[in-house]
Amino acid sequence: NNLAETFITIRVLGEGGFGIVKLVKSRKDGQLFAVKSFKQTSNTAQALQLAEKEIALLKTLAHPNIVGFHGMGFDQKERYIILEYCAGGDLRSMISDAASQRKPIPHHRIQSIFCQMLLALHYCHHSYKGLRQTLLHRDLKPENVLLNAAGQVKVADFGLAKVMANGLTVTTSFVGTSGYLPPELVAGQPYDHKADIFNLGCILFELCTLRVPDHALRGVQRAREFLLPAGHSAQMNSLVPMLLSIEPARRPSTADLLATPAIACWLQMPW
Ligand code: ADP
Ligand code: MG
Ligand code: MG
Question: H or E element: which one contains 32?
Answer without folding.
Answer: strand 32-38
